[in-house]
Structure formats: structure tokens, C-alpha cells
Amino acid sequence: MSTIDLSFNRFEGPLPGLPASIEYIDFSGNSFSGTISPLFAQPMLIFSHLIITDNIINGTIPDSICNYLNMFVINLSGNLLSGELPECWADLGDLSGLNLANNKLTGKIPSSLGTLSWLQALHLNNNSFHGELPTALKSCTMLITFDVGDNKLSGEIPTWIGESLAYLRILRLRSNMFNGSIPPQLSLLTSLQILDLASNKLSGNIPSSLGDISAMAQTHKPEERMMEVLQGAVQSSLHNYGPSGYSDTLVLVTKGRKMEYTKNLQYVASIDLSENILSGNIPHELANLYGLQNLNLSGNKLTGKMPEKIGQLKLLESLDFSRNNISSSIPSSISLLTSLSLLNLSYNNLSGRIPTGHQLQTLNDPSMYIGNSALCGPPLEECEQNETHSVTLPIKDDEESEMLEFYISIILSFVAGFWAVWGILLSIDGLRYAYFEFTDLLLERLSSPFR
């Protein structure tokens, strides 16, 4: 393989021209400027990997990029590229990875991308693309990563994402202008590990069927994790090419900050539906996603109760239900979340005593509970004494009422027995006369010694 790898140095100036025998180029992490046109001054017959991330390349992406029919990976992320994308993508039938994130690209996403039947990673995030997602993308049935977040895309989230993209593991549509409801068909994505629909205009209920996504329900023992690492090494060959490799990366907002995942991306499980207009109850089925590490439903209009079995999410590291209208007590099972490092339940209508125990004792920042006037207990103010009595008094009243009923039953039994005997005596003439004669005789004998 003919390779040029100049990544992560301090090179600057325009990109150099290259010989025709080059197959792999990596100029990442430098200060190259100007356009990418010099790279295409002459045809390179075996050119397959173009990786020029994090430079200051500007200008547009020329149509000539599609002349290299053997291209497997194009990664031009983190530059100053502008203008609209060319429509020639149908010529690159072998393309597996396309990353144009973090540029200044505009226009609509070209439908010709839908002809890339081998495409596995598509990153168009953090640009200025507008319009709806082209239906032609449903033909990219090999997609594993679909990231178009941080654009100006609109319309409803299409149902074909769940119906056609069976291998999808990462779906990131955050920070756009998508409206309508969340399609229940997303639950058909059994391999989905990351669902990020935050900061859109989505409305309606959260589909309870999201609790059926099997990849998010998986937990792993150490030996199982090691086996997955070995399997992942084989599967990641779909995403890694050449001596330096092309590794798929993703930026997630979790634990209140942005975090970039690369090597451990395949082990992340996250749902972020924050900053929308979602309403209704939080589906209790979400508590079935035992492998979740991040769950963020903040900034919506959710009502009802917190899921009682939230404590089943033992791997949860970040839980944010803040700024909703949830009105219930905090389930005691939340104390079972021993991996939790961020909890935010602020600005709801929660009430009662805050549960204690385990990891919750280390999360002592009062701000995660503020805005719930009826909550009490550490780290907020202690609950009032009469609140504690209100729990115990009904129990004492019940005990006293049970004792009273017991004594009354004894008295009634005695009275009933007494009158039953006397009733028999008074109703039978012979017995009544005999009884009174016996009583008179007994009294006469008892009194005779005193005469």
C-alpha cells in the first residue's frame, strides 16, 4: 500500500500535489489551508482513503472528488469547507465512511447519497444543511452511524429510519428543527445503542415501545465484555482502514458536558430526548433498558410519576428529568443506582422525603432537587416532625381500634351467654320452680348456724 501519513504535525500552507500511485492519505491535525483541489491535479487510480481532519481547508468540495472510484473513506471533518455538496456520489459505489462534520456546508442533503449501498458511517453534523431528510437515504441499508445533528433540518422524523436501517447503532438528530412525534418504528432498531433527538420541536408522548430496544437492555459480565472486545475488533474493521486507521467518533452530551467517544463507542448506551415539547407520562417500559448509561428527558412537558422500577437501570451514570411537570414522590428504588454520578430532578412537582442510601449519599448538591417545594430531607431541609408522625399515627389508631373491638366482642359474648341461660330457665316452668326451690333451700341452710 502506498501511504502518506503526515498527521498531527505542524505543517501549514496549501496541500501538496501527489503522485498517481498513492492509495492512503492522512494529513489530519495540521494547519494546511487553501482548497483541496491540488490533491486532484492528476488522477490517482488506486486512491481509496482521504483523511484531512482538523485543518483550515476552505472552499467547496469539487465534483472531481467523485472521479476516484475506489474511494472507501472520505473524512474532511473539522475544516472550513462551505457551499453545497456535489451530486455525483452515485459514482462512489464502494464508499463506506463519509465524514464532513464540523464545516460550513449548506444546501440540502443530496439524494445521490442514497446510492451508497455500502455506506456504514455518515457524519454531516454541525453544518448548515436544511430541508427534510431525503427518502433516498433509506437505501443505505448498511448504515451503522447516522449523524446529522446540529444543522437546520426540518420535517418529521421519517419512519423509514426504523423500517429500513436495520444495522443502525447510532442515530443522532439533535439540534435541528424536526417536529411531529417520535416514530414508534425506532423500536425496530434492535442494535440501536445511542438515540439522540435532543433540542428539536418534537411533541406527543414518548413511545413505550422504546423499552423494547434489545441492544440497550444488554448488561455485561467481565468475561462477556472481553468476548465482545474480540468480536468488536473484527466488526470494527468495517470502520478502520489503513495503517493509521479511520475510527468512527461521536460527541455526546452526557453528565452535563460534551464527551467524545471513539474506541469505547460500541459500549455506550444512551437516550437523550431533552429540550423538546414531549408530554404525557414517562413510559415505565424504559426501566427495562438495563444497559442504559445515560437517560436525559429534561426540558419537556412530561407529567405523571417517575417509573417505580427506575432502580433496575443499574448501569445508569447520568439521569436528568429536570424542568418537567412530574408530580410524585421519588421512588425508593433510585437508591439502587450505584453507578450514578449525575442526578438532576430539579424544577418539577415532586414531593415527600428524598430517598437515602448507597450512591445517593455522595450526591449532596441541593441544586439537583431545587424547584420542588414539597421535597424534604438531605441535602434539602429536614422533614418536619409532624410529617413523620403523620406516617405512624394511623398505625397506632388501627391498633387501638383492633383492641377495642376485641374487648367489645368479649363483653357481648358474656351478655349473650348470660341471657341465653336465663332465657332457658325462664321459659320452662318445671326448671324455673325447681331452680327457685333449690335457691331457697340453700339460703336457709347457709343462714341456720347464725340463728
TrEMBL record:
<keyword id="KW-0675">Receptor</keyword>
<protein>
    <submittedName>
        <fullName>Receptor protein-tyrosine kinase protein</fullName>
        <ecNumber>2.7.10.1</ecNumber>
        <ecNumber>2.7.11.1</ecNumber>
    </submittedName>
</protein>
<keyword id="KW-0418">Kinase</keyword>
<keyword id="KW-0829">Tyrosine-protein kinase</keyword>
<keyword id="KW-0808">Transferase</keyword>
